[in-house]
Amino acid sequence: MALKKKPVTGMKDILPAEMQIRDYVLNQIKETYRSFGFSSIETPCVEHIENLTSKQGGDNEKLIFKILKRGEKLKLEEAKEEGDLTDSGLRYDLTLPLSRYYANNAASLPSPFKALQVGSVWRADRPQKGRFRQFVQCDIDILGDSTSLAEIELITATTTALGRICPGKKFSVRINDREILRAMAAYAGFPEESTEQVFITLDKMDKIGLDGVEKELEECGYSREAVEKYSGLLAQAGSDAQAVRALGTVLADFLPEGRAENLAGIMDTVSEVATADFQLVFDPTLVRGMGYYTGTIFEVSMEGFGGSVAGGGRYDKMIGRFTGMETPACGFSIGFERIVTILMDSGFTVPASSARTAYLFEKGTDPARLAEIMKEAAAERQAGGQVLVAQMNKNKKFQKEQLQKEGYTEFKEFYRDALKR
Amino acid sequence: MALKKKPVTGMKDILPAEMQIRDYVLNQIKETYRSFGFSSIETPCVEHIENLTSKQGGDNEKLIFKILKRGEKLKLEEAKEEGDLTDSGLRYDLTLPLSRYYANNAASLPSPFKALQVGSVWRADRPQKGRFRQFVQCDIDILGDSTSLAEIELITATTTALGRICPGKKFSVRINDREILRAMAAYAGFPEESTEQVFITLDKMDKIGLDGVEKELEECGYSREAVEKYSGLLAQAGSDAQAVRALGTVLADFLPEGRAENLAGIMDTVSEVATADFQLVFDPTLVRGMGYYTGTIFEVSMEGFGGSVAGGGRYDKMIGRFTGMETPACGFSIGFERIVTILMDSGFTVPASSARTAYLFEKGTDPARLAEIMKEAAAERQAGGQVLVAQMNKNKKFQKEQLQKEGYTEFKEFYRDALKR
Questions:
Q1: pLDDT by residue (tens digit) across A365-401?
Q2: Would you call A367 an interface residue with chain B, using a CB distance cutoff of 8 Å?
């Protein structure tokens, strides 16, 4: 029987042209992050099923590719439910494995630890255009730093990377704090136990607008008074650091001392320090889906692209789930696939780093002559060139056109009879 | 309940020190291969279970991490055997996915196609020291070229890469041809249907020696005469290209015309063209485990390291399993993890590409002053430096020692009171 030629549902083969862009973008990101003192690390793609299903991953936990137990551990006849069949799964993000990694290796790592992790993650999402079940994330995280230096460095580093990859593209960083979100809900008069539900509705703001949010909250049964007070707060809030301070004064009774100033200070310093050209705005409606965030949250949008291209925030409780001891943690993740899509759609081509030459030799060239040609190629490669040695096709013109598409700009032709051309 | 801190059995967390070496080695390999005109590609880590279990992978097929069907497709109650539960698995090598990739995308690819693929593969091997269940392979393959140019380029490129990564390390490339192996068995008088069994015994040569091979073959019930004729052939064969030609004359009645000359020609040209310093030897006992090889096979051993560090060969039948049409194919795979192990064991350190400076600021530095410090760091980063900004610890001496271990050579200290030191 013939084997299956297509990739498995929802995953993709990456062709050389896209691969060039991917490699280029990855190198730019890694170089930038390294210049900020982040250290590369790697975690296994396979993670304990107990960790993956520990309620850290929100809806992603419904999308796990689970791995079958092996050998004697797989007891098919006794198995009553899915959980009996599996002991591990493919990671759905890089944050959970990073937290496990830090818990496991903290003694061998500097403190604070600035981690750079690039890797594939898997989610069994419904297949749809431009969205794949295996995709790459690029994360930086600072573990063990409770000060706002962590947020400032993460935002500065990520915006520097984005500015380098997509020069000329306008982008904005929206920023908020889970504590401010919580205080706003409390100030409006929503019961404390409903906060998460209010956030879920608020998170739909970009889709349904403020009116839609009001309507949905009322439908949930919250008092008209609370809903109005809430939407008033959202509508009136400004977007700069001063607005954060002003909101902090309004929310004083509901917010821990210094919280608003912390966020405003991050905004001030980032604005002063960051070298990329972007907008930094306070967005009181920014929620970010993941339940694990505990403080500052941020998200990057790019001109002409719906949805975010990067996002992150502070998650001070997750490492404690592994160690029993809380460790401050804050991270920023670049949606690598989205950046690649934006660049491909805009016709981006990778700047050539070296000359590309194709050596074409005539069919039937004798071994001694071929060896000479290959020695010439070796010398050109040692001098930094990129050289393809290939047999000349019958249709040489077409062959050259194809090679030009692959980036070959120089051609050398080698004939058996040196006089022939 | 606390979550699990250790990685899943047999897989590993990679610490920054190892990661630096891994990144360095990968870059060297990729740069070298690109200079030979190989194009990067990527295949999904998850592959159809039908492809993974199609007898292309030999014993590796027993080691597959299988992925559970999802949603309605998983019918636990009706499932009678493992196969009913799974529709895909993690790839155990890069060759099978590459063949599928080429079958799926040939129309968009140049011909011949020179592919470079780097990626993780998974095998549920019994956990043992230095051997992991997730590991990286670096493969180059030339698809669509039936001439020996493919072998010559693969061997030249791989030896160039190994020479760059491990300068001063002695290594040797052993080379053979499955057709010559087959002809030797036929010449000795083994029945044609036993050829594979004879190879399995011959493959143990490095462990049990020629005596052991003879003994095992006799125990298998082969005639004393055949075994003696066979071992005589093995013992007498020389190791250079002339020896291959001589053996070709002896085996003339059993070998397709030109086979021995093909291998000898590869050896001649590689010896002349390759720039790295290595031994190239004909090894009539080289088998290589995988059943899919059809012609030339090769393997690299490195001084002071048991086992091979790279290997490959020609597999002209595999792509036809997908397309129904035979396509010549030849590949060389570097055992990336082994190279990393060799470098780590020899105390290798990655050459620093840029100055690393740590900026240490005193606790309590006010935001305006911190912003100034960070601007100075940004300027140094833009000039190509690597700058870490961190709060000064109480034990500054220890902190600096730790940072020196991470590669920081320069330190700048910033105090709240400029006069204090």
A1: 999 999 999 999 999 999 999 999 999 999 999 999 9
A2: yes
For residue A365, the chain B residue with the least C-alpha distance is B149
Is A47 within 8 Å of B23 when comparing Cβ atoms? no
Q: How confident is the model at residue A76 (pLDDT cuts 50, 70, 90)?
A: confident
Q: Residue A47: in which H helix or E strand, if any?
A: strand A46-48
If one compares B133 and B127, the residue with the highest pLDDT of the two is: B133
Following DSSP, what letter does each residue of B329-346 receive, concatenated?
EEEEEE-HHHHHHHHHHT
**B325 at the A interface (CB within 8 A)?**
no
Give chain B positions within 8 Å (CB) of A11: 44, 46
**B110 contacts A374? CB cut-off 8 A:** no
CB-count burial class (<10 Å; 0-12, 13-18, 19+) for A400: middle
Residues A268 and A380 in one domain: no
Q: Which residue would you say has higher pLDDT here, A405 or B58?
A: A405
CA distance B80 to chain A (A): 8
The CATH code of the domain that includes B347 is 3.30.930.10
Domain hosting A389: range is: 356-414
Kindly indicate whether the ipTM for this predicted assembly is greater than 0.85, answering yes or no: yes
Query: Number of folded domains in chain B?
Result: 3
DSSP output for B33-74: HHHTT-EEEB--SEEEHHHHTSSSSGGGGGG--EEE--GGG-
What DSSP string runs through B143-161? ES--STHHHHHHHHHHHHH
Shared domain check, A384 and A321: no
Tens digits of per-residue pLDDT, B227-246? 999 999 999 999 999 999 99
Residues whose CB falls within 8 Å of the CB of residue B93, separated by 6 or more in sequence, listed in order: B57, B60, B121, B137, B333
Select the residue from A1, A5, A69, A75 to test the B interface by mutation, using most B Cβ atoms within 10 A. Answer: A5
Question: What does the block give as tokens for B317?
Answer: 């039948």
Tokens of A385: 């060139």
Mutate to test the interface with A, among B13, B149, B362 (most CBs of A within 10 A): B13
At B95, is the pLDDT very low, low, confident or very high (cuts 50, 70, 90)?
very high
Instruction: Show which of residues 165-224 on chain A sit within 8 Å of chain B, judged by CB atoms.
Output: none
- pLDDT band for position B1 (50/70/90)? low
Q: Does B40 touch chain A (CB under 8 A)?
A: yes
Domain assignment present for A5: no
pLDDT at B421: 47
Q: Show residues of chain B in contact with A19, CB under 8 Å.
A: 39-42
Query: Mind listing the pLDDT tens digit for each residue in A86-102?
Result: 999 999 999 999 999 99
Neighbour-count burial of A211, counting CB atoms closer than 10 A to its CB (0-12 exposed, 13-18 middle, 19+ buried): exposed
**Yes or no, beta carbons of B103 and A324 under 8 Å apart:** no
pLDDT given for residue B127 in this prediction: 77
- Is residue B419 over pLDDT 70? no
Question: Six-digit token pair at B248?
Answer: 């070709």
Q: Tell me the shortest Cα–Cα distance from B222 to chain A, in angstroms.
A: 35
Domain-embedded: residue B410: yes
The side-by-side arrangement of strands in the sheet containing B134-143 is: B39-41, B113-122, B134-143, B329-334, B305-314, B296-302, B171-177, B279-282
CA distance A344 to A347: 5
pLDDT of residue B11: 97
Claim to verify: residue B23 and residue B137 sit in the same structural domain: yes
Hey, is B413 helix, strand or coil?
strand
Asked if the bond preceding A112 is cis, omega within 30° of 0, the reply is yes
Inform me whether the pLDDT recorded for A418 exceeds 70: no
**Chain A interface includes B374 (CB < 8 A):** yes
pLDDT at A79 over 90: no
Report whether B107 contacts A27 (CB < 8 A).
no
Considering the domain architecture, whether residues A150 and A270 belong to the same structural domain is answered as yes
What gap in Å lies between CA A145 and CA A115, rounded to an integer? Answer: 12
Instruction: Give me the percent of chain B exceeding a pLDDT of 70.
Output: 99
